[in-house]
Specification:
By secondary structure, the protein is an all-alpha fold. It contains four helices and no strands. 72% of the residues lie in helices and 0% in strands.
Length: 153
């Protein structure tokens, strides 16, 4: 098997994986942006040193800020979930599933994570976030189960 982005299956995975990598990386930037916006939510004592970006350090800047912590929680959720998608999705593509099935699962996962982000950042109910997380989780598990099935068959 030759891996090529000319292969629609691999191209589907590459796009979905790249979107998830960009989304996960963006969360770090969004967290820092929020910290700069509220001038707080810092974590380390050395963050209170006077610098060009923190001209008026204040010990209160080390206090948790809910707006910053929300971004951190979203980022942590991505870090706990996206790597499994990246691994399972790649192995899934190697099993040669029907293209439409791969598109539904891979793009469906991306959609579930983007909707999960929107629900989390706008402080929607846990039930909504959990439903969106569950959908994505089931998609990853489905991909992994297909790999197990194909390998053991």
């Amino acid at each position: 098997m030759t891996l090529s982005l000319q292969d629609p299956l691999l191209a589907t995975y590459a796009l979905a994986a790249s979107l998830m990598i960009l989304k996960t990386m963006a969360m770090g930037w969004l967290t820092v942006w929020r910290m700069m916006q509220v001038k707080g939510g810092y974590r380390a004592p050395e963050d209170l040193r006077r610098t060009l970006l923190n001209r008026a350090p204040d010990p209160a800047q080390l206090a948790p800020d809910e707006r910053v912590e929300r971004m951190r929680r979203i980022h942590m959720n991505d870090l706990e979930n996206v790597p499994f998608f990246l691994a399972a999705g790649f192995l899934f593509v190697l099993t040669g599933p029907p293209l439409i099935w791969a598109q539904v699962l891979l793009y469906g996962y991306v959609a579930s994570r983007l909707l999960h982000f929107a629900a989390y950042v706008t402080a929607q109910t846990h039930d909504l976030r959990a439903t969106l997380w569950t959908l994505g989780s089931l998609m990853v598990m489905g991909m992994a189960l297909r790999v197990v099935w194909v390998v053991l068959a």
